[in-house]
histidine kinase
Amino acid sequence: MVRLGFIIGFIALLGALLSGLAAYRVHDQELALDRIALARAIDVHASLVQDRLTERELLARVASGLFRAPSVLKPNMLEPLRSAIYAFKTDFVVAGWVARLQPNELAAAQAAISAAGFPRPEIRDYNDKPITGLTQPIDVLMDLEPRSDETKMLPGRSYDQDPVRSAMLTRARVEKRSVASDPVPLLHPNGPIGVIVAAPVIPEGATVPVGFVTFSYELASLMLTNDDMSLFSVALKDPRREGGELIANDQGVVSTRIAAADGPAPSATRTVSFGGRDWQLSYYAKTNSARRAEQTAIIVAAIGFAITAMVCGLFGYVAYNNLRLSREIQVRIGFERRLTAVIDELNHRVKNILAVIQSIVTRTLRHGSDIDVARELLIGRIHAMSNVVSLLSESQWQGVKLKGLFEARAIPHADRIAVTGPDIAVSARAAQSLSLLFFELASHSDEGLSLVGKHPHITANWTVTGEAPDEVFHFRWEEFNTSEATRRPDSDFGLILLDRVAPEALGGTAKRFFTDVSYVYELTAPMETVVDMTERDRTDKILAPVRPVRG
């Protein structure tokens, strides 16, 4: 009894120490992982914002470069650009042509605005008061898109009295490049807050701009509106006031706030460039990483103490119930027989997996390959193998639903793939080959970009034709909006997998080709190899419950 008590006490002490150590380690790991995840999400968000800003500034530059009107007073000046700007980007609020008029051009400008069909052609200041006694050039809005009941009233206004727009146009005229304004309400004083980018139009052979092409954007779309599911909220530093911030809610409504001196500091800041100036984004974490790590550590410690108590209780229970030993020995005899079969099956499956991984590593890290690219491909391919093994383990190696191989954790860009087809369960061997095949196809679709800057739309569908036992499996992968010139070429390993390994593993044939608008990969195989019933029967046998041996 004394020895038993000593053993139980030692187990309890050891369990308490291990639980405390595990809680400490979990606390540090959770804190580090939360910080890494937040930093990565912030970097991705800032990169997306910069890409969106660059696209819109490029639109202004392209529009000003294409602007070749013979006169600044011609009616419908934006007519030559109308189709082009709508094809490139359509999320601007207003696109406008602002002409720099001389004092003697006011009458002609008023006639041009009237000829363009605008209801208020008179030249007036920004407060809608008529302009008289002009002695110097002024900037006047002559044409705009889109035309609506609200926007048709704007042409004829001079921007010289508006401090934000006047400062923007003056800087664009002096620097002769596209310039962004301070945040300003669009369309009317209570309109959505946004920014305007102006690109000067300089005729060939001239040195002074004759006008400006302007694009107005809501600030929420440029900042990427905050999402309830994101790890952070993002705010834009207001250049108009010290300590001011602009923040958008999940409906895209932008409001201004003053950052309190004793308030929480941003978790990170990032700087993006737009319209010849730098904009600072402040990121505020939505969760307290330290508190969350402490809570997780407490839970782990509690679980550890509970397990320790259970182990101690179980040890005492077993010690006082030696009479059950004989039956346990009988169960062990049957278990060892089953274990032998399980080990044999496990050896067979592990050898197959290791052979596939060896082939992946050998082909990926071939001599002369770029180590960074090879590393990313190797990680992705092994992750695809790991995912299918996890799916097989969850199903006890009874096969995998084919649609499950298209989950986001298995292949990149899964959200862009339209998947259709019967939800059949494929065998373990077929699942491994198809998982690598889908990853290889998806990993090469990201480079295909059209002239409008969109990723290709991808469809993956399969059908089963014929009658048992001669059913045939047909699979078709098609990437629309891509071509042989825009799609990233397949790697050597990828070509071998697409053309030989996957078809041979399924006992079928494959082909790949480009159409006028897409890239197509087709695979045909008999269903008896896609759904291997002999493999499933063998798995059912080793998973049968163990029964005590009676002697």
About this structure: The longest strand covers residues 193-201. Residues 2-66 form the longest helix (65 residues).
